[in-house]
Specification:
- The complex is a heterodimer.
- By secondary structure, chain A is α/β, with parallel strands linked by helices.
- Chain A has four domains: 69 residues, Phosphorylase Kinase, domain 1 (2-Layer Sandwich); 227 residues, Rossmann fold, CATH 3.40.50; 226 residues, 3-Layer(aba) Sandwich (Dimethylsulfoxide Reductase, domain 2); 114 residues, Barwin-like endoglucanases, CATH 2.40.40.20.
- Helices cover 31% and strands 18% of the residues of chain A.
- In chain A, the strands form seven sheets. Chain A has a seven-stranded mixed beta sheet with strand order 5-4-18-17-16-6-7, sandwiched between helices. Chain A has a six-stranded mixed beta barrel with strand order 23-28-24-26-25-29.
- In chain A, β1 and β2 form a beta hairpin.
- In chain A, α6 packs across α24 and α20 crosses α22.
- The two termini of chain A are 33 Å apart.
- The relative contact order of chain A is 0.16.
- Chain B has a domain of 147 residues.
- Chain B is 27% helix and 3% strand.
- Chain B has six helices and two strands.
- A two-stranded antiparallel sheet of chain B has the order 1-2.
- Classes of the chains: A alpha/beta, B mainly alpha.
- At the A-B interface, α1, α3, β3, α9 and α10 of A face α2 and α3 of B.
Chain lengths: 775, 230
Amino acid sequence: MYTSVTNRRSFIKKMAIMSAMTAAATMFPGVMFASEQEQKLPKGGNLDWKKAPCRFCGVGCGVLVGIEEGKAVAVKGDPKSSVNKGLCCVKGYHSVMAMYGKDRLTKALVKKNGKYVETSMKEALDLIASKMKETIKDHGKDSVSIYGSGQWTIPDGYVASKLFKGCIGTNNVEANARLCMASAVTGFLTSFGIDEPMGCYEDIDHADVFVLWGNNMAEMHPVLFSRMLDQRLKRGVKIIDFATRTTRTSMAADKSILFLPQTDLAVANAICYEIIKNGWVNKSFVEKHCNIKKGITNMGYGLEDKYKFTDKPEEISFEQYKEFLEDYSPEKVEKISGISAKDIKYMASYYGDPNKKIMSLWCMGPNQHTRGTWINNLIYNIHLLTGKISTPGNSPFSLTGQPSACGTVREVGTLTHKLPHGVVMNKKHRELAAKIWDVPVENIDPKPTYHTVEMFRALDRGDIKFMWIQVTNPMVTMPKLKRYRDATKKEGRFIVVSDIYPTPTTDIADVILPSAMWVEREGMYGNSERRTQYFEQMVNPPGEAMSDTWQLIEVAKRMGFEKQFYYKEETHIEEIYNEYRRHHEGKKHAMAPLEVLKSQPGAQWPYVDGKSTQWRFNAKYDPACSNGEEFHFYGKKDGKAIIWQRPYEPAPEEPDTEYPYWLCTGRVIEHWHTGSMTRRIPVLHKAMPHGYVELNPNDAKRMQIKTGDNVRLTTRRGEMILPAAVNERGVPAPMQVFVPFFDENMLINDLTLDAFCPISKQPDYKKCAVKAEKA
Amino acid sequence: MRKRLGIISLFVILFIAFIAIWNYSYQTGREEAYIPIENNRPIPIIPSETGVFKRSGYALEYANMPIDKNHERSLKTYYNNRAYHGAPPSIPHEVKKDRNMGENSCLKCHENGGYAEKLKAYAPVTPHPEMVNCRQCHVPQKTNSLFIGTNFPKLTAPKAGVNNALKGSPPVIPHQIQMRENCLSCHAGPSAPKEIRVSHPERINCRQCHVINNKEIKDIGTFIRNNKYD
């Protein structure tokens, strides 16, 4: 039997203690932690502490980097940062070690006759520029492309967009964040008309209940999870882990509910059914601030090349919506979801209770989902029906996994359809961008080209001939990887890769550029709570390594765009940021000035009248609200958010007799993404040296497999052998297996399916059918 | 005769009715008394992961507990009480009743700890209170003399304070954790050896910052790529 970590008696006891130490409690959580850490440092050292956001995930912890004799030698949490209040996770504490791996790329490498030859940076950049010009001349502007990432700093992404969209005139700009939070973006855009969370991390200090939707926060967002655990000690909050796999988070949660893959759609609808049935709907909120719509169903899964989809929203009445929900009573959903009607009612009762503030948190579970936009919409439905939104503690919160997925990809807009402000399809948005970029407005193509999966398919087909990949490792992360790896090796393709270490992606490059990472250069990241954070250059990059921003500027100049790329080497980051801010002027999205970012651990946009906005759409906190009401969802023209009627639909490839297991992929706490940085940190590598496949103990027993035994996994895309992990870090549900994707020697993505959400175009890495057997 | 038959049949009917009603009420009574066992759909427990959170309910108490400097344990006594690093500690005090199971003797002190006046020490807290046959592994030491000496090479135990990868970074876990998944039982409270007592027990999710790097089985070494460019 699973028992809760806190029972009522010990909670009452704790409350008594807490009342006795209220003064001390205000100091919690660990505002003193970094200074305590400092006490333990050897005395007489000559450390110079400088502030930066952490290099790794989207939480965006403030860290202080200790510099000694030109080297980064230590890290502590920044006690002044409201994000982490002085605490980091194991990756953050060791992050500076990622700069000092022995095989750091320090020289440009150019492939000549199948061999990599060291060249000067100048020669390599000349080659890239001439190759781009030649490709455009021979095959048109849409044959060159850039693929970046949510680890791009804001200036990196900005100059990439300006060069490709503004100067060259192609919308072939994508980023790995398409694989990571595109569904969150389309979720926000369809429900609210404007991207990114309305709330902020401070919601954690106000909420009474936390529902984690397929989100192993204890490992993936550990610092925020610590803040929740801290609130549980202080205030006895409830943490509900709603997931498909038992994890460290389930162990720490008050309740763990396991559902079958893809049925989260049905459960979310069942929660709405219960809310309406029990009269928990906040009627005045829904009437004043919400519209109800439905879209096209049976959209398909994007498995075929050149797949296209456009939704056709249609307004419906509350009665029609209610009728639709009749199919989702807890008793009906129980049958497909594998969770009891009682557990559905249990969750619904917390959402419905007007006296409970509730926070929903999610990341890759709902986002990497062939109905990713839908499940994002459905979670917002729950919060909109109950009016539990945009107020402290009532917060649907979409987390991100990369340090600047929000800051660069979503805000700068390094996706095919996006511009820094708005979308390429909108004439006004194009005009604004063209004006600031100093290019003719005709330069900006009004038609989006390829989203990430389609971009690699285009490379395979030969529609794209040139691709520049920066700060990301698609030859580990693309789904159905083999097709796209083979594509890059085809005749007539030219691939440039900018990175700091050799990876499976540099393996397929024609030119490898050594990059300067993180605090080896100057830049900004934007985290999940709309916080933009600045970091200065603290150490020198090794060898000829150069920042991605400057690499792009050098190439742009060589291509004849000196006028647009007028930046001076010493001040280019400041110049770019100031230019970028002009795109976001106005109360809805104003960015803080650079002096502010330099002086404090970040600021949250909209930054209006010298103040960050913590809760958007709420007139009390958000100066952009202008309808005279308590709430104003100004992303939509009529100021109303949308409740979407979205049904349950099965996954594209469900287990059958031949491939009887579900395959889910994901991360572990020690390694970040493809491990190209964290595996070079000895502490982390030793803690988690290689990939594995997790099996349910009963399945393992039936197949006579124990931890360490070789297991053969086979899908319709390929097969591979991995060591088994039974009862280790996580336990998948029966007939499901889990594989982390960090290990480049066990490329699990050779097996995954490249089906994606038709609206967001984000692939689903969490669900496909696999056969597992003892090897 | 007819009258008598009528009375008899009336009684028979009454009797049958009584039986029927009594039977019905007995059955319904049984039904009400029966509480169906609900299928709670328990989630599996992950042995290496659960322990971390086990004593977290006491974390605030640990954080606010004054330190009794006069009765602290040291890492040296902690290691000396074991045949080798990782071996179950022996019982360094007198045990009254030899036939008791753990729950009504050992666990009285060793489940949650506390000061023992007689021994002038704080009772160490067991990381695995669910295993109640304590003396299956833990034995008292009744004499100091040996039957015959031993050449057993005692494994060197990891040292405290030297396990950081960077200046001031969180130390790694230098030991195996089987049977010792419950961090706070040894690393927090008055019975924790002073060298390894955690300064921040209220953080709960210990392994968010402290990862296992034990060299006892084999040193894993650093990451090396298969593919090289020269």
